[in-house]
Structures are given as C-alpha cells and as structure tokens.
C-alpha cells in the first residue's frame, strides 16, 4: 500500500465559474467576476430581452449585481417589472436625485415625502423656498449628466460610531436619531460621486441604469416620476390626486402636533416615556376626524342624504372605522343601519372568472347590481324589504323571512371594495350619497430619504391579523398578497378620487406595536421559501428600526385593535336595527 500522502494531490485552483439561468442557459466566466457581467452577457435571452435587470436571486438570496461570483451558482435575474426590481430602481433614482440636488444647492435637505398614483414621489426641500421651475430644470439636467457618466454606486460597511459622526457632521439629524437606537455595531452606506447616504435596501451598480425618470414642478415641492412595475418601459402620465394630497397634508399636520417627524423621533419619544401620550393624542386626532365626517353626514342628511359608502384597500381598518363612524352618527340623533355587500353576490354559476379561469369574487359583476339598487331605493324610501342571504358554501341565495323597514332618521352604511365605483349605485342621486375612502396612508418614514410604503404597513397589519384570527402563517398571507394587490389596483385605487372625504387610518405609533407581534411570524419563514423569505427579510429590516411598544397601551376601540385583537368593536352591531 502506498503512503497516503502520495495519493492525495492539492486541487488545482479554479479559474472559472458557471452561472445557470432559469432557462438552463449556462454562462462561464472568471472567478470573481461580478454578477453584472453574466447578466449583461445574457440580456438577449428570451427571458431577459427588453427588460432591465437590476439585481439577482442567487441560490435563493437577493444579491446586488456587484457581487463577485466565486463559485458555480444558479440565479434568477430581478427585473424592474418585479416588486423587488421596482424598489431597487426607485431607491437608486432617489439617491441620484438627492446627490444631484446637493451638488447644485450645497447644504440643501431634500425630503422624499410620499408616493403618488401612476408612479411618482412627492418631494420637498426644507428651510428654504421650494424649487422654482428653473431650478427643477437645472436639477433634471444635472441628473442627466450623472446618468451619462455611468458613475458607480458603491456599498460600504462602516462602524456605527463612524456613521453617527459622519452624518452629524453633514447636519443629517434624522439619521443620527435613527442610529441612536441601532443594535448592530455597523451601518451599510452607499457612495455616489462625493456623497454618502444610508438606504435600507439594495442599489443598481451605476447611474447608467437610471435612464427613465422625470421631474415636475409642483406647489410646495416637486415630483419625481419613475416607471411602475406594470409599465417598466415608460413613465405614465401624472394623475393629480387632490384628495390624496389633502389627506397627506392633514397627516403632516398631525405629525407636527405629535412632534414625531420620523422613526428616530418615535424611538426617542418611546425611550423618554412619551409612548402613552403619543397613543392618546393620535387616537384623539383620529376620533376628531371621524367626528368631523359624522357632522358632515348629519348636515347633508337634512338635505336628503341617506347612504354612506365606505371603500378602501385590504387591512385599511374599514370595519372598525365604519363602526366608530356609526357611533358618531348616533351622537347626532340619527340611526345607522349597516348593509353588507356580501348579501348581494350573484349565484355561483353566474360569478365571472379571471384570466386563470378562477372565480373572480372581487369583480363588480360578482355583485347583483340590479337587486342591490332595487333594494337600496326601497329601503331609503321607507318600504319593507326582505333581505337576501348568501350561502358561501353552496354558492346560492335565499331571502330572509322577516323584513327590514327604515325610518327617515336612518342612515344606510355600506362597506365594500366597490363603494367608490360609480357603476355600483344608480338608483340614488349623487346628493343622497356620501362616499368615504379609508386607507393607511403612512407618512412616518425611516428618515428623509427612506420611505415606509403604505402597502407595507397594510401587509404587516394583515400578517398579524391573519395569524390571530384566521390561523394563517406569514407565508400564507404573503402568498395571497399579490392577488389582493391586483384586485385593489383594478377595483379600488382607480376610484379613490370619487370620495367626498379620505380618512387616513394610519397611526404614528402602530409599527412599534406591530413589531413584537409580526417579527416571530416573519422569522418562521425559512430560506428555502425563496421569494417569501426575501420579502420577510425586507419587512424585518423595516421593523428592526423601531423600538417596541406594549399592546396594552392601545385603546380597546382603536382601529389597530382590528389587527392585534382585543377590540370592543369586533362583535358590535352599531345602531338601532
């Protein structure tokens, strides 16, 4: 037998790696070559042709294109027509815009305030007059120059102390506040040209990727437009949304009253023992607005108003809002009567189907509109009506034996996703209806450049509610979310400006309460879950910035109780029947 050391030879160092794409295409390149090289070489593949790839999922983990490939890997390109790709593009574009603004107007502080329909951010500058139209054009020109240069966007890890010192020296108090409560001893920052900034997600490799955008002058600020994931190749015309802007303006006023401009301010308030005060004042502001809406309803009732329609996206708190509004209406001596749209589903065989051949229960045609309008007119005219009852198991409809008859003092309250669609109600004239749009329009951002999307707040609410009340896992909820969002974009958002008023159900403190409830649920999602794992890590990164708050501080009639449990409104049927 030969000695062991004569049988084993050192392995030759590898000089090449292979990258496998979803269609089984394999590309080979030098060890250490960045992902971007392989993606660029594959851009003519059918699955990538005509698309912009901004990142990749490597063996189930989201990675930037600057990642060096050190071994054979399987990747899924992340393009801008996906949710992750769209976020990376928008985040990188915001960085480009803020860098260009700093170069043109040194020392200026640009705030990315909130999102607008059709793909846009509303931005502001503080401590000086808003940008003039000429300054907006200059900013747009500087952005084009930086894009033409294909300047690299580089990622760096620095110590927490170094980050605090750096941002304090730049006057970025929002980031200093944010980092005060960070538990990790490092911070990941990005650099572009001479500017460094913190962003809580990935970036494109260089500015040459950011060719599609526009800037528009606006009152009190400006608008940064970008492509939506549904239309990644072009920018949609700006949709003006006065109601939405009014709602955000009201919320900005609320934040000023609360002394909480960003998550850093919220963390400081919690740390300094102001949590209970924040809850009470924020809840009082909610109740004040609900009371104002009820007063408008009561005033218009004297002129013939009989119907209140309430609509809004998933997890916006519509049910609790409806009940609290009913209570306020009763305080005006009126009698609310709630009418469930679920009663009016067409029988199963008449239900429309979606593009996949599945029953589309969210389509307007799934509602028996003629019957709904016939009974609406009868009820508001004081006639006795036998109400329908829908059996969801059999998919059939029957009618109650007892009748419902309303008095002139009754107000009908109907909550449903189609409440703002003008095709829903044709039997009553416009002056006899009042439409309310309810949504969690979050404006408490991480800092002045990092937004917390309103969709994410609703998703976190839903994850907590689904686990408590329906026994769903976080992965179950994430699996349904894309379908829910498609329904919202088709049936709710196009009609939001039809509302007489918008109610912002977001609470400044809610993510701090939701954090200890949502984190254990999100942490149960395993890496092999792939897309769901990536989404869970993203949501955890947002929640990780917040100091937790005790649920005991939340009043039992709060809209937040609809999601965390313990609501006294859950089984309450408002008003005389």
Explain briefly what this protein structure is.
With 577 residues, the chain is α/β, with parallel strands linked by helices. The protein is built from 15 helices and 21 strands.
Write the layout of secondary structure elements.
Layout: E1 16-20, E2 26-30, E3 33-34, H1 35-41, E4 53-58, E5 61-64, E6 68-69, E7 73-79, H2 83-104, E8 110-116, E9 120-125, H3 133-149, E10 153-159, H4 160-169, H5 173-179, E11 186-192, E12 195-198, E13 214-218, E14 221-225, H6 242-258, H7 263-271, H8 275-301, E15 307-311, H9 318-330, E16 335-340, H10 369-380, E17 385-391, E18 396-404, E19 410-415, E20 433-439, H11 454-470, H12 474-491, E21 501-504, H13 510-523, H14 531-543, H15 561-564
Parallel strand pairs: 1-7, 15-19, 15-20, 16-19, 20-21
Antiparallel strand pairs: 1-2, 3-6, 4-5, 4-7, 8-9, 9-14, 10-11, 11-12, 13-14, 17-18
Keywords:
single chain; 577 residues; alpha/beta; Ubiquitin-like (UB roll); Threonyl-tRNA Synthetase, Chain A, domain 2; Rossmann fold; 3 domains; 5-stranded mixed sheet; 5-stranded parallel sheet; 21 strands; 36% helix; 20% strand; globular
Structure notes:
This protein is an alpha/beta fold. Helices cover 36% and strands 20% of the residues. The protein is built from 15 helices and 21 strands. The protein has helices at 35-41, 83-104, 133-149, 160-169, 173-179, 242-258, 263-271, 275-301, 318-330, 369-380, 454-470, 474-491, 510-523, 531-543, 561-564; strands at 16-20, 26-30, 33-34, 53-58, 61-64, 68-69, 73-79, 110-116, 120-125, 153-159, 186-192, 195-198, 214-218, 221-225, 307-311, 335-340, 385-391, 396-404, 410-415, 433-439, 501-504. The protein has a 5-stranded mixed β-sheet, with helices on both faces. β13 (214-218) and β14 (221-225) form a beta hairpin. α4 (160-169) packs antiparallel against α5 (173-179) and α5 crosses α7. The chain starts with 15 loop residues before the first strand and ends in a 13-residue tail after the last helix. 39% of the residues are buried. The mean pLDDT is 92.
